[in-house]
Amino acid sequence: MELRELLRQLSEMHAPTGEEDEVADFMAKEFSKNGFEVKKDMLGNVIAKKGSGKRKVLLAAHMDEVGLAVMGITREGFLKFTKVGGIYDGILSNMRVVIHAKKKIRGIIGAKPPHLMKDEELKKLPEYDQMYIDIGAKDKAAAEALGIKPGTRATFDATFADMDGGRGAGKSLDNRIGCAILVKLAEEIKKTDCTVYLVGTVREETGLYGAGTAAFGIDPDLAIAVDTTPAAGTPDVSEDSTPVKFEHGPSLGVLDAAGRGLIMPKKLVDWIGLVAKKRRIPLQYEVSERGATDASRMQYVKTGILAASIGVPTRYLHSLNEMASFKDLESAKNLLKAIIEEFPEYE
Ligand SMILES: [Zn+2]
Q: Closest Cα to residue 194, out of 334, 58, 52?
């Protein structure tokens, strides 16, 4: 399947943190279709394996997306919620959501009409704990009859949009981009000198948990997180503050969370740089002050694992409409393929 079509389908799936089955089942099917041995572990990670080479390479892409969890239902049938994952309240106001009740149903986050607002109210943003989801139910009993209770999850509701210039926008590109790249690699890796593990991980958005348990079980010689990363170049994100440019190829996350997460070994940074140069794949280097990827956890599993983080520059992360360029997806996929091919020579 084309990367574009893979990303469209994956973007429109719903996999809130801790309930990743919809994406997991899709990934498992695609992996086994391409001759990988597939299993699912207790937390829900999808682990696909191919080859029997001496060195083990693990590529991890998290399947979960940021979302909401119902905390309670008001007498009138409105849902109060908390946020699961890093969400700015500004994007929630009046958002359309999917409620994961007995079956999927629609909800909207209510917005007070400006007609009824005081001057001060017009100037400020409501906070999430003042907001509520309206599912159209006439009272609490009607909402409960749909199977809604504390813990019921909600995800953003958006369809994927093809944009000008080979770009696409939609919800959950963080990290269905990583998932799409792993599925595409499964199609392209016919045989390999390494033992390749393609892993769809769970619970990244709230603490990088699935990647930790998966890496512990696999104990790879090299672990790479495949994820998205904030791109500079829009009027509000300058290239001085965020060095990763849109459409300038994947980024290598050499140091995460101001050094509190992943710190890549210099030797590995240089080696990946050489692989990219040899294959003429554009590569950017990134240091982030906040935020981490699955690599930040995988590096510290067992007695320590050689780890790298590769990100696709993406605009508007953790919003209803994230945007990426298929050129960057393609380059990231090619770089990962080259790394798998060259890793037997790494010393
Ligand atoms: Zn994220």
A: 52
